[in-house]
Design a protein that fits this description.
This protein has 662 residues and is mainly β. It is built from 8 helices and 45 strands. 13% of the residues lie in helices and 36% in strands. Strands 14-12-15-17-29-28-27-22-23 form a 9-stranded mixed beta sheet, sandwiched between helices. β35 and β36 form a beta hairpin.
Length: 662
């Protein structure tokens, strides 16, 4: 991490009068003409952003302390101080011209061979700056990996170091005009320089919160970087679940291809990030220099190797929109709760998700219903968010497939966003899709999702559900559409919308038809059954069900269940009936001339509906009498069972009194 530039022209040498005159002359000729450093700062960097156990990690430190120690802490599981170096000679190191692209070229301060017993994870090396002790010290973040990738955990979390580098203006420039000298951005930026506080804040704002949440969930993960994904094309073959958190805006073609292949081959990707996969960049110099022209016409690869031109993924000449993988894009998203320009601030009611398709397993255990909102206190929607093009169908947002968004992408949450890319108005779109090979992608589509992990129960539960199901690698059938459902107006996140309401279904007609359209994510066989008020309905093993209005007035819970070989999905309606119903008492006597009357005692007589409905049971008295109360109109089968066999008659229960003679 780098701190405020200081000690300008403090060369740590004694100037003679002649040297002072010469230095002053050179200074006034212009700093750009100098071939030696004239500005010093405090900070540090390492020669790698991730390192294997047994490899050597080198540190390059500039500090005003005359002597100091480096302390290394493990984050997350088994967190704490694990290493303290011996005393290191301190001193300031100077920033050479063009350090932003060529690196700081500092002298090595310390190196360490990573012990084999250091667990895979994220580590923080700290050192003092400006005489302040370690609690306010400089820091270097790095990942430790096991050579046997995937042996410690089948979960890989990506450290978005490309993003840290893109926003880092140490040495005068970043890939942005706003924080670059002369408001002129760089086209190349180096990893061989300290990360500024603002650039490394990506890690502390989002990734570190995920790491801490893992501890509460007893989850262990391995950590990799964008650079690792560039250098090792087979890295993800070692993992089952990959998690992208925070802000993964800059990716190389090798990384993009590897993640796409991972999902295509059955891997599961959790995108807890916003503005994801917006720019293509290249890496050079063994991964230590990042190239981002951001303008295809300035990139020398245009017309030479178009597929590596550094521009937006959807743009010319790539035409490879990120939506093919992520299902969402910043073009359809935008900005929420941006305090810098006052865009859709939390104080005005923005920054949470509205729930849709709440019957999906993602929401299990949350109690959330369609139209509910969650995540407001933590402002989980912001600052940059991704969305997609959708239409409303019967109160349900449904993707159009524009920009190669997978047509089976299911929208689970929405939040309005101010879009300054292509449109004035967009949405953050939380959602999920599967592919035929067992791959799955869940996207929260917001940078701030991880801010809900410390204290927001809904964010915690949703993240838990997704991670658990992705590790389990089995998925319940999707209930894609259904009927009945009424669309009701509602204001959500300052928007006037119509939502699909299944909790206020009114039944006044003789019957109501229920239907669900479902599919198995893996293309397997699915089965059905239905329940009314928790009681399974006979003969209900299809996607359709008829609710006959032959029940007492009241509120009834109708639930459809769809199951495959491993999991079950369900969807529920609340049905209010208001049609007066006539009930009957069905009674009769078993008469059999060839046996004694004593054999007619304690015979079980059952009245079973021909179609859907409840069965009735009665036990005969000494004279063979039986009776059923509160029988609904309909057609029934009558059967008797005892040590003797009795024939079955077809009975119409609309008769008030029946005498069954055999």
């Amino acid at each position: 991490m780098a701190y405020q530039l200081r000690y300008v022209c403090d060369m740590n040498i004694r100037f003679t009068n002649k040297l002072k005159i010469l230095f002053t002359l050179i200074f006034f000729l212009g700093l750009n003409q100098l071939n030696f450093a004239v500005v010093a700062t405090e900070g540090g960097y390492s020669n790698k952003t991730s390192v294997f156990q047994g490899e050597t990690l080198k540190f390059y430190i500039s500090t005003s302390s005359t002597s100091y120690q480096i302390k290394i802490y493990k984050l997350g599981e088994n967190a704490g101080l694990i290493f303290t170096s011996s005393s290191i000679q301190g001193g300031l190191q100077y920033i050479p011209p063009d350090a932003y692209k060529n690196g700081s070229n500092w002298a090595k301060s310390f190196e360490i061979v990573i012990p084999n017993d250091w667990e895979p994870g994220v580590y923080r090396a700290v050192f003092p700056v400006s005489g302040v002790q370690y609690e306010n010290s400089g820091e270097i973040i790095f990942a430790v990996k096991t050579p046997n990738l995937g042996s410690f955990s089948k979960i890989a979390v990506i450290l978005t170091v490309n993003n840290w580098n893109a926003y880092n203006n140490f040495g005068g420039k970043s890939l942005y005009n706003y924080n670059s000298t002369n408001s002129q951005k760089a086209i190349k930026v180096s990893f061989d320089r300290p990360f500024t506080f603002s650039s490394i804040s990506d890690f502390h704002n989002w990734t570190e919160k995920l790491i801490n949440w893992f501890v509460t969930e007893n989850v262990v993960a391995e950590y990799i970087t964008n650079v690792d994904l560039y250098q090792d094309p087979n890295l993800l073959s070692n993992y089952d679940v990959v998690i992208d958190v925070g802000h993964d805006e800059y990716v190389t073609l090798p990384e993009r291809n590897q993640v796409q292949n991972f999902v295509n081959n059955g891997g599961r990707l959790m995108i807890l990030s916003g503005n994801t996969y917006w720019w293509q960049v290249r890496l050079e110099n063994n991964g230590r220099t990042m190239v981002g022209y951001k303008d295809p016409y300035k990139d020398p690869e245009l017309g030479v190797n178009d597929k590596v031109v550094t521009t937006r993924w959807y743009d010319y000449p790539l035409y490879n929109p990120e939506t093919k993988l992520t299902g969402v894009t910043f073009r359809e998203g935008g900005v929420v709760n941006n305090k810098d320009d006052g865009t859709l601030l939390k104080s005005k009611g923005y920054g949470d998700f509205a729930v849709y398709n709440s019957h999906y397993w993602v929401y299990n255990g949350t109690g959330l219903k369609d139209g509910d909102e969650f995540g407001y206190d933590a402002s989980i929607v912001g600052v940059e968010v991704d969305g997609n093009d959708f239409t409303w169908q019967n109160g349900i947002p449904t993707v159009t497939g524009k920009d190669q968004v997978p047509v089976n992408f299911r929208i689970l949450g929405l939040s309005p966003a101010a879009n300054k890319a292509d449109y004035q108005y967009g949405h953050a779109v939380m959602g999920l899709y599967y592919n035929k090979n067992g791959g799955a992608v869940f996207t929260a589509s917001t940078m701030n999702w991880a801010k809900g992990l410390p204290n927001d129960a809904d964010v915690q539960k949703i993240t838990h559900n997704v991670l658990t199901q992705f590790l389990k690698n089995t998925f319940p059938p999707e209930i894609i559409s259904w009927s009945p459902g009424v669309t009701v107006p509602k204001t959500i996140n300052k928007e006037s919308v119509f939502i699909n309401d299944r909790n206020n279904i009114s039944l006044s007609n003789p019957s109501l038809n229920f239907h669900i359209n479902a599919a198995d994510p893996g293309g397997g066989t699915i089965n059905y059954f239905w329940k009314i008020n928790g009681n399974k309905v006979n003969n209900s093993d299809s996607s359709d069900f008829v609710f006959n209005n032959t029940v007492p007035p009241g509120v009834y819970t109708v639930t459809a269940f769809v199951y495959n070989s491993t999991d079950t999905s369900q969807i529920t309606w609340k049905v209010t009936t208001d049609n007066p119903v006539t009930y009957y008492t069905v009674s009769g006597t078993l008469v059999y001339d060839n046996i004694s009357a004593s054999l007619l005692l304690n015979v079980t007589v059952t009245l079973t509906p021909v179609n859907n409905g409840n069965s009735f049971t009665s036990i005969t008295d000494t004279n063979g009498n039986y009776s059923f109360n509160n029988v609904l109109p309909g057609n029934y089968n009558l059967s008797a069972s005892s040590s003797n066999q009795f024939p079955v008659n077809y009975v119409n229960a609309t008769d008030a009194l029946l005498v069954a003679r055999y």
